[in-house]
Design a protein that fits this description.
Order of helices and strands: HHHHEHEEHHEEEEHHEEE
Structural class: alpha+beta
Shape: flat
Number of helices: 9
Strand content: 15-25%
Number of strands: 10
Number of domains: 2
Strand order of the largest sheet: 1-2-3-4-5-6-7
CATH superfamily of the largest domain: Fervidobacterium nodosum Rt17-B1 like
Radius of gyration: 22 Å
Helix content: 25-40%
CATH topology of the largest domain: Heat Shock Protein 90
Largest sheet: 7 strands, mixed
Length: 321
């Protein structure tokens, strides 16, 4: 116990070099500047789940810098790779600065800036899960998730650049001027959030935002059992009767939201269809979800699946009884 207390004292008195302090300040400034350029086709600012964008505050960043200086992760910091973790893990690190979790999520690609040649503003943070001592060598669900994330990000960015280049070409060919085109830019934003983590489970959400002549958002959800390196399903969490339980709670929440706000509407709540759109028909093994801070599954539906597009991604927390 005495050795641990001495180690903690050393850790708490580590002096942060000016260079690292500048890294911290730059990271904070970049976070504050994010999303300023995002506009809809009508020119109004659009809010794409703002609460999920500003995840890290100053205290967490400084805690991370201190931790990396006491471990081999200092090498990682030198190459600009950051550690992002759940709040519960951050609290654990304050108590045990030399102890790490069974898994951690690293930012392995980061880019923030405006590409004048392409007219695209990019705010990119790409994560990777490392599982215990296996690190990047982890196979199983973690390995598959890491590959999937890289593929998704690369495909989105390549397609967005291709689409915007085509739009720019058409704009000029149809009489638009270079000056006017310079005012028409695209915003691309890739970020992530660890929504839940304990010694057994990890839940990670990857967000993709795109805004030019219109706004578009997409989210990808990953839930892992860290002990056996397998993906977690709704049945794993709620048992064989999960579908009935989840469907009942979702319908109840949909009706309550519609009664409380006349601008809210869900297709399929009362069994009807809307212009051939089936709407909500129930969940199955392919239904996406993530775990929130309480460890409850939050069912998610992309734009247009169960509601009009203006309502965006829809989420429903399921209470585990």
């Amino acid at each position: 116990m005495k050795e641990l207390e001495q180690s903690k004292m050393i850790y708490e008195n580590i002096e942060i070099p000016a260079e690292l302090d500048m890294v911290v300040k730059n990271a904070i400034a970049a976070a504050e500047e994010k999303r300023k350029r995002e506009k809809s086709a009508s020119g109004e600012m659009v809010n794409l789940q703002e609460e999920k964008r500003n995840k890290n505050n100053r205290k967490k960043i400084y805690t991370f810098v201190r931790y990396t200086m006491t471990t081999a992760a200092a090498i990682v910091i030198a190459f600009g790779i950051g550690l992002n973790s759940s709040e519960s893990f951050a609290m654990e690190m304050e108590s045990h600065p030399f102890l790490g979790p069974i898994a951690k999520v690293l930012t392995i690609r980061s880019y923030h800036g405006f590409d004048e040649a392409k007219g695209i503003e990019k705010d990119i943070e790409v994560p990777q899960i490392e599982l215990g001592e296996l690190g990047q060598a982890a196979g199983g669900a973690v390995g598959s998730i890491n590959v999937d994330i890289q593929r998704i990000v690369d495909n989105h960015l390549l397609q967005a650049e291709k689409d915007f280049a085509g739009y720019q070409k058409d704009f000029l060919e149809n009489g638009g001027s270079e000056e006017e085109l310079a005012q028409r830019t695209m915003d691309l934003d890739v970020e992530y959030e660890v929504t839940y983590q304990d010694e057994n489970k990890l839940s990670l959400v990857l967000y993709y935002y795109e805004a030019s002549t219109s706004a578009y958002e997409k989210a990808y959800y990953y839930n892992v059992n860290l002990k056996d390196n397998q993906e977690i399903s709704l049945q794993d969490l709620l048992g064989e009767g999960y579908a009935s339980l989840v469907n009942e709670q979702i319908i109840t929440q949909m009706k309550a939201r519609m009664e409380a706000d006349e601008s809210v509407y869900y297709w399929g709540v009362y069994g009807e269809e809307e212009e051939g759109i089936e709407g909500f028909t129930g969940v199955d093994e392919n239904t996406t979800f993530y775990l929130n801070a309480k460890g409850n599954p939050v069912i998610t539906f992309p734009e247009y699946e169960v509601a009009p597009g203006y309502m965006g991604i829809q989420e429903f927390e399921i209470t585990i009884k």
